[in-house]
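Please describe the entry underneath.
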Amino acid sequence: MSKFTRRRFIQLGGASLLAAGAAAGGDSPKSGPDRTAAINDGYLRKAALPEPKGPRVVVLGGGWGGLTMARYLKKFNPAFDVVLVDRKSLFISCPLSNIWMADQIPMEFLSHSYLDAAKSNDYQFFHASAVDLDRASKRLYTDSGYIGYDYLVLAPGIDYDYARIGVTEIEEQYRLRTEYPGGFIDFSEHLAIKRKLHSFQGGNFVLTVPAGNYRCMAAPYERACMAAAIFKKRDIKAKVLLLDMNADIRIKKDGFRRAFSTFYPDMIEYMPATEISGVDLDKREVITDFDTIPFDDAVIYPPVRASRLIENFGLALSSSPQKEADVDQFKYHFRDDQHVYVVGDARPQPFSKSGNTAYSEAKYVAELIAAHAKGKEIPWRSPQTMCFSGVRIDPLEAMSIIAFYQYDKKEKTFEFDRVHMIEKWSVRNGQAGLAWGEGIFRDLFYS
């Protein structure tokens, strides 16, 4: 396979558009060489941004990590000219979306304006999609022109890896993504899942838990509780089949097991060590190594990988099964480039892929970049993982965990450190989770 490059992208893009014009019977100048030149000019022109008044830091990706980077880069070095780039025009949070599905919070709680964030924190928001990266000239190419940078921070998130559950055909992957979305990337998926849960008429409802590191570790188990709570409230005769590709519940194990047996004993069937090898969409069956499991509806959350942008830009770690970025695990920059950094779900460290982890580590990396620009260094600091998991509704009751990480020099790996876990659910913890989310949204959008 040839390496993806800017020239290759433009060649393919121009050829595709010319072919589309020919298929439509177009023979005007817009479907000839002039059109190709126009396409090239569109990608090669400078983006419509004010000229930088200081070192420009471009942040690609407006999730929890990217928003935090943009906000704290300006805080740690007000001289930085910060540009946040995202293909979405509106931020809607994935963290806390499970309890939104169960009507415990309104949509307004999760949705916020990038323009408010940029105005409040004195940076620029640029609505565009990235198409290529030229590190030699320090240019990020987007569908609305290129942006030069002094530093670039990539926070592009995740993609699904359906091949790891035996679904390799493009048509089948498309059907799986649209008919049984995982609900951890685009909020259209969340809307579809909520509709499923509130219109389900009974039978087997399958939820899956991926293997590997995924976003977010406790979320699939919380989602099972919320699904069962919705069915219970609607008095639907339903069985929630929770197919876990892992040997056991990954986090808050005792708490989730007690919640399953206490609140939903006849509704949630937890099935650990279920290795999924295929999905028959026509028969509505999940195929495992030992059995086939029929379902009436489902939310199929496959294993995840880093956003394909990382691989397309030629920055993926070759040994990473999840195609994560090849960065220094303490400094977050690429090993051969101290001007390009990665935060959030696309970095290779085994830290939780949770919102608070991304928020915490982005603060550290923002401070790191500010120090590098001044020729200084700061010591490594562990990110903080904080997670609230709802188990019951009306009123919302939740469990929680706060944890850090430490590096084992002998084993050359990271492990949990200073773990504080509350596996006894309570209304107080449910309210604490809402206060946590509200505090972070206020910090990122309205400070």
